[in-house]
Design a protein that fits this description.
Layout (H helix, E strand, L loop, with lengths): L5 H7 L1 E2 L6 E2 L14 H12 L5 H13 L6 H7 L10 H13 L2 E2 L1 H9 L1 E2 L2 E2 L3 H13 L5 H10 L7 H13 L5 H16 L10 H13 L7 H9 L13 H26 L2
Antiparallel strand pairs: 1-2, 2-3, 4-5
Helix pairs in contact: 2-13, 3-4, 3-5, 3-13, 5-7, 7-9, 9-10, 9-11, 11-13
Length: 276
């Protein structure tokens, strides 16, 4: 079963915040962190203490905190950086920021319009990454874009056959609710291709790529097949609480927390259904 959420998002939107956006959920305070796995709590605490001015990193921090239903001091900073055009007019940065803020319960209709205006001939900049991230962002705002999904499907080929790229395509299609048979068959075939590309330790290439792959496979309906990858991911956490071993520690840690939040949520649902 594919995990989609466009209709649920539309139904949960609450209008009216006074800051030009739509608010659709209430976040917990940081005190709720104490009820989590201490390893997760440590990572979330480490992440919030980091200093960065990079939009990509700020977006990931906000997204990670929101995935655990926690606020972030970076949320207001990301909103202040919005500008016109949004986030410097960079499609990919804007898409990431949109998804991060949507995950915090904030949607900006003006950014929605701008992002849609950047689509030309079915894609964003004729680029797989810009298009995939844009489709994910639109889905996070409750918007279905069949034209963009079709572009990804029709243009998928050998040049995109990399675990990270393929995973983003799958994620975009799943989040967009692309459930036509041609999409279902494509996702089914590609997800098992991704499993074949998994390394013996349970991961793919690096922490960032591994997280994108695991997220896409979880969204596509796999779970038990990914237990070994989740175990590997937890073992890769540094004793200080973060993931990564270079300048991308903030992104690696954020992506890992997003993955684990999705894993725990799906596991909780499966456990509940098994007990009914």
């Amino acid at each position: 079963m594919l995990t989609t959420g466009i209709q649920a998002k539309k139904q949960s939107i609450l209008r009216g915040t006074g800051i030009g956006c739509i608010a659709r959920k209430t976040l917990n305070t940081d005190q709720h962190i104490m009820f989590m796995d201490p390893r997760i709590s440590k990572a979330l605490d480490w992440l919030e203490k980091q200093q960065t001015e990079r939009i990509k990193e700020i977006s990931r921090v906000v997204w990670a905190r929101g995935s655990w239903n926690l606020s972030s001091r970076y949320t207001s900073f990301l909103i202040r950086l919005k500008g016109n055009p949004p986030w410097g007019g960079n499609v990919r940065e804007t898409a990431r920021a949109v998804s991060s803020l949507a995950n915090m319960g904030l949607i900006f209709p003006d950014v929605e319009k701008w992002l849609l205006s950047q689509k030309k001939e079915g894609s964003w900049n004729s680029n797989v990454y810009d298009t995939a991230y844009s489709l994910i962002a639109l889905a996070d705002m409750g918007i279905h874009d069949s034209e963009g999904c079709c572009w990804l499907f029709e243009n998928y080929g050998h040049d995109w056959e990399h675990p990270g790229t393929t995973s983003l395509v799958i994620m975009a299609l799943v989040k967009q609710g692309a459930i036509d048979k041609m999409y279902r068959d494509f996702i089914d075939e590609r997800r098992y291709w991704l499993l074949e590309k998994r390394e013996s330790n349970g991961g793919w290439k690096n922490i960032a790529t591994s997280n994108i792959v695991i997220q896409s496979l979880l969204m596509s309906g796999l779970r038990e097949e990914l237990e070994v990858s989740i175990d590997w991911l937890m073992k890769e956490q540094n004793y200080e609480g973060f993931w990564g071993n270079g300048k991308e520690n903030i992104v690696a840690t954020s992506l890992s927390l997003i993955t684990l939040a999705l894993w725990y949520e799906i596991s909780r649902v499966v456990s509940y259904e098994n007990n009914i």
